[in-house]
Amino acid sequence: MTPARPGATGPIRQHRSPVPEAASPDGLTTVHLVRHGEVFNPEKILYGRLPGFRLSEAGVRQAKITAEFLAGRDVAAVVASPLERAQQTAAPIAQALGIGVDVDPRLIESRNVFEGKPFEAGPALLRYPRMWRVLINPFRPSWGEPYTEIAGRMLAAVAEWRDAFPGREVVLVSHQLPVWTTRRALEGQKLWHRPDRRQCALASVTSAVYSADRLVRVDYAEPNGPSTNQAGSVGA
Questions:
Q1: Taking the model in full, what pTM does it have?
Q2: What does the pLDDT look like over 113-171, one tens digit per residue?
């Protein structure tokens, strides 16, 4: 019987055995959290979960470079958020590895009340009194999905995909805030933070390395180099 894939919401485009023949010789399992590439967003909208926001030409190039970075690794599955920009980023990675792309809704962008609006972070927000009421608690945060909820769904996805392919590697393509929140949770840091201090560049790779279910280390790579936060980085 073919086992169900973790987080799968539709037909599986390619099946890989959860007990692979080619496992890591050191027994380590790695889950790579990839942030999507740059989005075409000339009006600087905080796009959040809105449909229709796709990669820019630069973002497409970034996805290809990250695919080259991950090519040749023993990756058993490539999984993406249901949003277009994540799907586009995952496609060349999966193609380079010769496998399909699965979808896991837990990898989706965080909810945000500013979604669909032009967004200017920092003191400029004080010019909009109607928004003050949602800015009262930066530790939760009060303007969007709580950090604890983001961490909970992301960590559950990481654990399930890790356990499905012991001794191998899995690529999960998500978004800046979910990836960064997951990293802080894995490293035992407080989840609240300053958005301008996130270490999560466009098309970057944050890798959680496990021995069984014990976290050994977290690695970080920027195949495309560093990038400044795009407009909408509260939800990018």
A1: 0.80
A2: 666 666 555 555 555 555 545 555 554 554 578 999 999 999 999 999 999 999 999 99
pLDDT for the residue numbered 47 = 87
Pairing of strands 75-80, 101-103: parallel
Instruction: Point out the residues that are catalytic.
Output: 36, 109
- What is residue 209's three-state secondary structure? strand
Residue tagged 């990898």 (tokens) = 107
What's at 41, amino acid-wise?
N
Domain parsing of the chain, residue ranges: 28-235
pLDDT score, position 88:
98
Residue with tokens 């962008």: 109
What contacts 24+ positions apart, CB below 8 Å, involve 114-117? 114/46, 114/48, 114/143, 114/144, 114/234, 114/235, 115/46, 115/47, 115/48, 115/49, 115/50, 115/235, 116/45, 116/46, 116/47, 116/48, 116/50, 117/45, 117/46
| CATH number among 3.40.50.1240, 3.10.20.600, 3.20.20.100, 3.40.50.300, domain 28-235 | 3.40.50.1240
Residue of 99, 84, 225, 68 lying closest to 170 (CA atoms): 99
